[in-house]
Amino acid sequence: MSVVGVVCALFVLISFSxxxxxxxxxxxxxGEAILTTGSLPTTDVSQSxxxxxxxxxxxxxxxxxxxxVARQSLEAVSWATTxxxxxSIVTIAITLWCKTSNSLLTGVGIVWFGAIALGFLGLGxxxxxxxxxxxxxxxxxxxxxxxxxxxxxxxxxVIVALWANLDASVGIGLMLLGLVTICxxxxxxxxxxxxxxxxxxxxxxxxxxxxxxxxxxxxLLTPLGTGLWAEWAQHFSLTGSPLMIPTVAxxxxxxxxxxxxxxxxxxxxxxxxVEIISLASFGFxxxxxxxxxxxxxxxxxxxxxxxxxxxxxxxxxxAAIADADPKAKPQALRFAYxxxxxxxxxxxxxxxxxxxxxxxxxxxxxxxxxxxxxxVAATRYLRENPVQGMVFAPANWGDLxxxxxxxxxxxxxxxxxxxxxxxxKYDYNRLNRGDSGWAETADRYNIDAFIIDxxxxxxxxxxxxxxxxxxxxxxxxxxxxxxRRRGA
Amino acid sequence: MIRxxxxxxxxxxxxxxxxxxxxxxxxxxxxxxxVYSLPQQPVAIPQLQNEPRCVELKYDWPQVITDEQxxxxxxxxRPQLNHPRPKINFVDHAVRCWGLQSTFNDKNCLSGAEMAxxxxxxxxxxxxxxxEEAPLLIEGEFGPGFRTQEGGATSSHxxxxxxxLAEIGIPLDHPIVLKDGASPKSxxxxxxxAMRDFRVNQKEYEWTTVxxxxxxxxxxxxxxxxxxxxxxxxxxxxLMRQEWTQGVCYGNHRLYALALLLQFDDQAGLFQDxxxxxxxxxxxxxxxxxxxxxxxxxxxxxxxxxDASRSPEEMxxxxxxxxxxxxxxxxLEWWAIAPQEVLPPRETIIRGAQWLVVEIENMEPASVxxxxxxxxxVGRGLCLWRGKFPYQLTxxxxxxxxxxxx
Lengths: 488, 406
Prior knowledge:
The complex is a heterodimer of chains A (488) and B (406).
Chain A: H1 2-16, H2 23-37, H3 60-72, H4 74-100, H5 103-121, H6 127-142, H7 144-148, H8 150-166, H9 170-191, H10 196-201, H11 203-218, H12 227-235, H13 248-266, H14 273-288, H15 293-312, H16 318-324, H17 331-351, H18 356-359, H19 366-369, H20 376-384, E1 390-392, H21 395-402, E2 410-411, H22 422-433, H23 438-444, E3 447-453, H24 458-464, E4 471-476, E5 480-485
Parallel strand pairs in A: 1-2, 1-3
Antiparallel strand pairs in A: 3-5, 4-5
Helix pairs in contact in A: 1-4, 1-5, 1-17, 2-3, 3-4, 4-5, 4-6, 4-15, 5-13, 5-15, 6-8, 6-9, 6-15, 8-9, 8-11, 9-11, 9-14, 13-15, 14-15
Chain B: H1 2-37, H2 67-76, H3 88-98, H4 112-120, H5 122-129, E1 137-139, E2 144-146, H6 160-167, E3 175-176, E4 185-186, H7 187-197, H8 206-215, E5 221-223, E6 229-231, H9 232-241, H10 252-268, H11 274-294, H12 319-337, H13 346-361, H14 365-370, H15 372-385, H16 402-405
Antiparallel strand pairs in B: 1-2, 3-4, 5-6
């Protein structure tokens, strides 16, 4: 009951959280292009200046998904993100409950997972679609029984194939399968007293390596074919920002490291090598590249919580023990628990905005749907006063401003800035800083409006903010300032 | 026991063989896919033809300018550049106007070949500018190029001189001579360097477009240093992107480049997308409509050619007369190579041309020298309207005045 309560509370919290990730709008634009043309775009459709620059659409299925959702309404995007985030949480909750039968550990695990993974992702990210697949892959590969069966092998391949169509981050899944294969090889060698011929004959090793290889080949089952591999080869980079310890994700990582230490010290018997290696690898990668927290969180929670219970000898809930024995608890009480859980779920649903089509109620405004970092007022301004030429705005605002659901503007840059040619990137930075000659640069790109973030573009605001003979302030609020070319 | 051992051993061997075979198959599949997915280096520069394409002269309208007027006007615009340190900008414009084949009886004038040599041969440049002057032709990151916008001894705009060489018919294998006997180079090297160095969003792009289109063999594309796939469709859209009067010479060079692309598209099918051609025609038609609407009663246009309801912006030097000559001359020049469907009523062109004829006739020689670059566009435009290139009028003889002819 308490686990259901925690999940329901998280569900309500997520459903009311404003959308904080803007990449959804990029995906929706790309998805619209796919749905309209029936083929994958070869240039970045969200930035007209990227014309001529070749890009590969590696998230076509995500793009189509978000385009179809966004076609419904802005509210539908919020609902979809809530549902996707909840799927991950429920999967983790069920897994932890099945493994520990302890409501406290399960609840703590869920909250820990939510804090690190969802906090890092932001609501609306493309990775929300991938996260359930990653959890499923973890469950399949870390489960001894599933790992040994043909079903486990096939499930891994299917998950990887689906993931490859959703996002190029499928390489992470392959990395896990690779680690499993290596661990299996080490274990096999150890068991066979380091006789390679026996290892080759080991069925479990054979299955592990075949799963990895077939999964690798399964990544070719996308409209891009080998294009996905080419994308990896072209954009492989070791640069990234490390995990910041004084953040929620950083603190969660520290807790995980502490728990890992306790487990290693207190655990009775032998820990599976794959658990140790994968946890250590992803934990280390997480430290070097903060974004790995998204992948590390489910792995850590699925592995560490049951191991911690075993290491510390924490007992299962008494209710759970009673549940395991049908005779120990009256049928009526079991029904009451089920009814209570359903009631909790219904209350959570009724409170959340998702109930609006069923139970009625007011649709949320655009201001309620987005967090404070979104250019809500500027979006509204652009919809009411369309700009014919190009709009210069911060790249992280560009995502929403260019979208059909947002400002419908031809923006200079979006968060896909890397797809722009070098000259455009250089000019974006010059304009962003408000360097001298900004007006000539604006002419060159046919920029008809500047949407300035008053908090992050202080020098640009200082330079152009007052307007001149050719530019005038058209709109201003606490967050943004809109400067328009006179006569445009 | 032995039997069991053999069965077990045979089973193991069988399993290992199968496994090894399947590994060979899978790994070769993975390797093949990996090799296939290795990024292919795109063709950086397309196939080019040695002889540049030439614009077709479609019109011969005597009403625009009579033979006598043309002779008289062009005599005034003869390239009197046979003096020390002639501005390269003037030489560049003069040879573009008069062409490679032009010759003059006036010893103050340079022939077309002499002017072209000054642009392509360091020795000829040095003879005019002296050994102490920095060379016009220099070696850059991507190959040879022209020193640009660094004073009188340099080219006035990015790839302007290269565009001139293309427009006067210099083939790609024409040798160029750099300072201190650098390894032999040709116009091809100049063009390749310009194309590699090109960025779609750079400030001046009109003449790179003209050069590339002149030597292109068809609907080709190339990869710029930014990794952009540059096609003539993309260039056309870039040319149409900015506000009407933005760019060099009140935006007229953009219109000229578009009209040239249309001609060369007719000749070689430059555009990959058929809609590009109709977009360009629509764009030029709108420019024409604006020009027709904003033409002054006297026949000229000004800096505000796109919208006469606003005041024209002042030039840095030259005043209203020069602004008007610039705007009017350039408009007549791009119309002269544009398709019939984008032309204004004949009356519009005649009024503009006649205004120019009178203005040039009344112009002092010093004023002609001062504004020579704008005037070469006028001269070339007027000749094109009579269905000829300026060199076809050479060698020019001094027109007789009305009194003398009597």
